Amino acid sequence: MPIIVLTAHSDPQTVERASELPIHAYLVKPVKANDLPPALLIAQKRFDEMRTLQSQTHKLEEKLSARKWIDRAKALLIKNGMDEEQAYLHIQHLARERRVGMGVVAKELLGE
Fold first, then answer.
1. For 18, 21, 25, 42, which has the most beta carbons within 10 A of its beta carbon?
2. Tens digit of pLDDT for each residue in 27-86?
3. Residue-wise burial string across 18-30, b where 16 or more C-beta atoms lie within 10 A, e elsewhere
4. 112: pLDDT confidence band, cut at 50, 70 and 90?
5. How far apart are CA 42 and CA 25, in angstroms?
6. What gap in Å lies between CA 10 and CA 7, rounded to an integer?
7. What's the confidence (pLDDT) of residue 53?
8. What angle do CA 71, 96, 65 make, to 5 degrees?
9. Residue 4 near residue 27, CB atoms below 8 Å
10. What range defines the domain where residue 89 resides?
11. What pLDDT is recorded for position 62?
């Protein structure tokens, strides 16, 4: 939910403290009626952007984690006689066959 601070304080210390909070707008009283729609619109957009970025960050972290597991599993398969391409294709084949991500297969191959 977007957060808008409505306050009578505009001193630098209060504004600085507010800047550390997860707020999306800061309005100083007295606020005119025509000040609210733009502030609400911008706060909503910033909130939506933040949620999108958080989602993208989470997905990228999951991909990076899966990539690390896949690399470890490839190393294990290479140690057991496959070359790098064969190891990758083996993990990929198992993932397709089971309809799960390659990271899941890699973890299982490593006993995790």
1. 25
2. 999 999 999 999 999 999 999 999 999 999 999 999 999 999 999 999 999 999 999 999
3. eeeeeebbbbeee
4. confident
5. 8
6. 8
7. 97
8. 30
9. yes
10. 4-109
11. 96
Supply the DSSP symbol for 100. S
Per the document, the length of the chain is 112
Q: How far apart, in whole angstroms, are the C-alpha atoms of residue 80 and residue 73?
A: 11
**CATH code of the domain in which 21 resides:** 1.10.10.10
Tokens of 18: 């507010």
Cα separation, 63 vs 110, whole angstroms? 18
Query: Can you state the angle between helices 36-79 and 102-109, rounded to 10 degrees?
Result: 40
**Count: domains in the chain:** 1
2-28: per-residue pLDDT in tens?
999 999 999 999 999 999 999 999 999
Output the pLDDT for position 49: 95
